[in-house]
Amino acid sequence: MLGKNNGNISLSYTYDSYKEFYAGTEKIPEVPAHKKITQNIVSVFANYGITDRLEAIVNLPYISAKGHGQPDPFSMQTEAKGLQDLTIFLKY
Q1: Closest by alpha carbon to 4, among 69, 43, 42, 52?
Q2: pTM to 2 decimals?
Q3: What does the pLDDT average to over 14-21?
Q4: How far apart are CA 2 and CA 76, in angstroms?
């Protein structure tokens, strides 16, 4: 615990690239349409001591994904980006 009125903010960055993936237990040798997908993920993580025994924790990721190949047959796009799921926790 951080203690009352203490807090931290941190940033993280992740890069990911893949050409194959699993659908259940079956390994798919190539990503359909895109052939390869790359992702850049930036997250902001913060925690703050509300009291000496209660802490708030927040995480907000921004993801940018790009397919290298043909556009997705459903969306007709090769890129997707934006804020993802905001997570808020209380830790006691």
Answers
A1: 52
A2: 0.75
A3: 88
A4: 47
